[in-house]
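can u do me a favor
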């Protein structure tokens, strides 16, 4: 996620320059042919402007829907933050008895392991995502291949070797970690580290974690309907093909530099529409690890810091800092 006040113009243009360049080349070919070989095929601007209004409305619908997916993802992780803090406070307050400090640390560390496993799972690539555009400083395009090795290295700091071994081969590691947490809470209740009422309160928090995980997985595993995404792209392309011909209708009576300004104006119009389409396209998948996604790595680290401070742990990691304005 980009966290500075504004994207710079040249940063935005560099990200989306391909439609402008192709639109300029296409427009110059049309205007050059019209000028050199008396090629005067043009279309009245009025119907093209009506088509442009329709495309703009459709792009607005797509962008609103894409934004809803991103905002929902952020709300889901906001819920995880709140529930995690409640879980940490409950562990500190409820767990009493022999070796209670070790038990608190175990439960908190297992919860951080769940956050880590969930984050890695949400970063895995899907066929409809922009795998080639991941933030390569943190997430390489081959993140799927590095998943198991990198995750195991992080898990070693939070789970016992036996528990890590028990997770091998599981389809959904985060789900299994939370299952282990639930079983461990029952064992602690049987050992009278807390009574039934407090055990049920902790189990309700486990339920909330599963609920938020399921919501995040719903967004991750169900793409923005491709019929809407594809239609927006093709309508934008169709409109762009007509733009130079429409401006040629206006420029046909002009001479000199005014005539040659029209290809640049055509390219600008094409660029604006494709920029709107691209913004929506890159907002559909809020967990894919690109420029505009939800910074779940930073959020997870913030939760880890809060929980480990609650149990007065040592060697607490620092918060994740942005790199060139990008926060992961």
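np, heres the sequence
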């Amino acid at each position: 996620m980009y966290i500075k006040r504004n994207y710079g113009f040249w940063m935005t243009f560099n990200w989306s320059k391909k439609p402008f360049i192709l639109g300029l080349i296409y427009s110059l070919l049309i205007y050059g042919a019209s000028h050199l070989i008396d090629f005067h095929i043009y279309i009245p601007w009025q119907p093209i402007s009506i088509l442009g209004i329709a495309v703009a409305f459709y792009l607005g619908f797509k962008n609103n829907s894409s934004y809803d997916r991103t905002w929902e993802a952020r709300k889901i992780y906001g819920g995880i933050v709140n529930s995690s803090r409640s879980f940490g406070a409950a562990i500190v307050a409820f767990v009493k008895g022999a070796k209670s400090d070790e038990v608190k640390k175990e439960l908190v560390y297992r919860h951080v392991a769940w956050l880590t496993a969930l984050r890695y799972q949400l970063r895995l690539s899907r066929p409809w995502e922009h795998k080639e555009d991941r933030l390569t400083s943190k997430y390489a395009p081959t993140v799927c291949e590095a998943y198991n090795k990198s995750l195991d290295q992080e898990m070693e700091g939070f789970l016992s070797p036996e528990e890590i071994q028990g997770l091998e081969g599981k389809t959904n590691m985060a789900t299994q970690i939370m299952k282990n947490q639930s079983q461990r809470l029952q064992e602690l209740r049987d050992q009278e580290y807390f009574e039934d009422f407090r055990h049920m309160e902790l189990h309700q928090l486990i339920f909330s974690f599963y609920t938020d995980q399921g919501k995040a997985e719903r967004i991750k595993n169900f793409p923005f309907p491709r019929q809407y995404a594809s239609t927006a792209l093709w309508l934008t392309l169709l409109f762009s093909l007509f733009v130079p011909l429409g401006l040629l209708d206006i420029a046909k009576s002009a001479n000199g530099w005014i005539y040659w300004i029209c290809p640049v104006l055509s390219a600008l119009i094409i660029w604006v529409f494709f920029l709107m389409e691209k913004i929506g396209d890159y907002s559909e998948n809020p967990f894919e690890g690109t420029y505009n996604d939800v910074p779940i790595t930073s959020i997870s680290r913030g939760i880890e810091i809060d929980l480990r401070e609650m149990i007065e742990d040592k060697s607490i990691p620092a918060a994740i800092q942005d790199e060139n304005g990008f926060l992961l």
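Residues 112 and 304 are 6 Å apart (CA to CA). hope that helps!!
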